Amino acid sequence: MKKTRFLLFASLLFSLIVLFVAVGTGSVFISPKESFRILAHRLFSLPADSTIPAYRVAIIADLRLPRVLLAFIAGGALSVSGAVMQSVLKNPLASSFTLGVSSGASLGAGTVILFGFTGALHGFVTVPAAGFAISLLTVFFLLRFSRAIDPSFQNNTIILAGMILSLFLNAVLTLFSALSTDGLKNLLSWQLGSFALKGYAPVLILAPIAALGSLAIFRYRRELDILTFGTDEAASLGVPVKKTKNILITIASILTGCTIAFTGVIGFIDLAIPHMVRRIWGPAHRTLIPFSLLFGGTFMVLADLFCRTALPSAELPVGAVTAILGAPVFAHIYLTSRRRGA
Fold first, then answer.
1. Contact 245, 153 (CB under 8 A)
2. Integer Cα distance of 126 and 109 in angstroms
3. CA distances from 18 to 11, 13, 72, 271, 305 (A)
4. Number of DSSP helices (H) and strands (E) in the chain, helices first
5. Residue 119 within any structural domain of the chain
6. DSSP annotation string for 195-237
7. 334 confidence band (pLDDT: 50, 70, 90)
């Protein structure tokens, strides 16, 4: 227990260092000393340093800090969600994305982008609202549909139904795109994912959702440990399997749905990070959940930092970068699971 607490503290310290470095790094380099003074003034109301130019203060406080915080929260929420899905469905390739959450969010946000409000204010409100609403409806429909066709609520049924639903929602979005081509560029930009120019509003909304969702999941750490042995074993040990699955899948889907509603579709991190955490610290959820949160958030900050500094005059889409980095991990998980099943 002492070793786990020490490692958790060390991981938290490492995450804070990465956050601090990311805030000061960019096309305009700001020294750690200036960054610290600006952050101390904005976060802790310490006296401001009048020698620091106003534009540097604006870059740190108004542009980079909310971006870095949003990236950390998004990465942590997605990683925790992925860890839960893999444990509940007893499948290393399971995630909210495979259950159609991202497809539902894309359909909701895409419908607004292609046919709805285009103004900056309306878009900021309606795009994430529509994305989250349709993603949540997708999960509720998936759970009801899976239970209707398979009263035993088997994991394979849920995964297969999610894949079918995801294909259907993607097809509907493709049809909408063909009917309205004016917003295709904006839709593609949203689907590739970004943390740029979001401001503090998404941070203030997502932070409590991610914190409460992660705490709620952590309370189910014993049930999650038992579910990894199978539904029959869990039921024999007194776990209400169907109810627990419903609750955990819903919470994990809310984490994913809220995140991608504001940031766009950012995949693979929910598959890769929990898998790596299991390899290092083991499958126990008392360590898997907090370490997935910290390392998922830190990885996302580093990925976003690379996206905005790799090219001098352009910014890479973070969703594409996480997909490129996560694809080999996905392939490794798939091949490993096949060898074990052979």
1. yes
2. 8
3. 11, 9, 10, 22, 10
4. 15, 0
5. yes
6. -TT--SHHHHHHHHHHHHHHHHHHHTHHHHHHHTT-HHHHHHT
7. low
Could you give the number of structural domains in the chain? Answer: 1
Binning pLDDT at 50, 70 and 90, where does residue 117 land?
A: low
Please give the pLDDT value at position 34: 93
Q: Token pair of 19, please?
A: 């956050």
* Mean pLDDT, rounded, for 61-79: 96
* Three-class DSSP category at 338: helix
CATH number of the domain within which 178 lies = 1.10.3470.10
Mean pLDDT of the chain: 88
- Establish if 2 belongs to a structural domain: no
Give the structural domain span for 155: 71-341
pTM surpassing 0.90?
A: yes
Token output for 143: 């759970």
Is residue 219 included in any domain, yes or no? yes
CA 320 – CA 198 distance, rounded (Å): 19
Asked, for residue 191, whether it belongs to a domain, the answer is yes
Among 133, 97, 127, CA closest to 111: 127
Is-contact 179 43, C-beta < 8 A?
no
Residue 316 DSSP label: -
Q: Cβ(213)–Cβ(255) under 8 Å?
A: yes
| Residue appearing with tokens 């909310």 | 66
